[in-house]
Structure formats: structure tokens, C-alpha cells
Input
Amino acid sequence: VNDDGDTGSDLAQLDARGHVRVDRKDQTTFSDNLAYNPDTEIAIIPKPAFLEPREGYFLLGKGTVIVCDEADQGIRHVADYFRSQLTTVSGLQLKIVGAKSAPAKGMIRFVLRDDVAAPAEGYRLTVTQQAVELEAATPAGLFYGVQTLFQLLPPQALGTKRISGVRWQIPSLV
Output
């Protein structure tokens, strides 16, 4: 399903492994005015053609780690950006580790894969209660996937100062 608008088109679909894939064909970014309510429909801009909410949430906490190929500067830059923003607003000091140090659960994994059938800015996102996996063919795709992660988090994730009393969680989805 294409979403044709004034700023371009985006295509989102479910791939063979059950992951949401959003093909970005423009440079539209997220809106910081989205209201977060876990009891309502998940709101993502651009709206995916297919998104299947699942039961539960991935809860970020002190033990959450970001997993990526630390040697790849493009991936590391995106991981640092995500971590920096979350540290600013939540105070969480998320560690960035390589795949060999990845825990079985409690991780947000950024992966570059040649087999992601998407344009340069496309990505696949899977969120379970145990982990978040963001896959893309390029660092630009990972960057746009991070924008979606920020939309899925409570709106305070887009702030500029630390906020206490927020449950930092991402709804499970494929």
C-alpha cells in the first residue's frame, strides 16, 4: 500500500519473517505532537500499510543495552544518537555493546543487512517483550527506524531535559 502525499511516498509491509518494513522515499520526519496512550491505536508517521500490535511492551531500564557492530561508524553514530537522546530525557545510561556481548533479552539491536529488501532509507522493526530489533540496508534506514522508535516511546522521549516518573516502554509489534 502506498501512501502518496505532497512530500513523497512511503511503503510499509510485513515481510516473510513477520517484521514491519517501512520503505522511506522521502525525508519526512516524525511529529513531536503525537499523544502517547497505550490503550489506543499506535500512531506512527508515516503510517505503515501494515502494523500488527502484539501483547505487552519492551521496557527500557538500567539493564537495557544497545547492540550493534561497534566497528561500523555509520551504525555507531545512529546508536550514539539514540542513546544520547534517551540519556538526556530518562537518565538511563544505556551501554553500547557488540553482538558477541549481547544478552538474550533486554536489548535494542541495530543491524545492517544486505538482505533487507528496501530502499536506502527503509527498515524493518520488531518489538517484543524481550528485545527490539531494527534492521536496515544502510545507516540512513537505521536513522529513520530510530525516528519511529522515538514515536513509539512516550512523547517525553523527544524532550530536551530529564523527566522523572515516566515508564520508558515501547509497545510490542511486528
Summary: The CA atoms of residues 129 and 141 lie 23 Å apart.
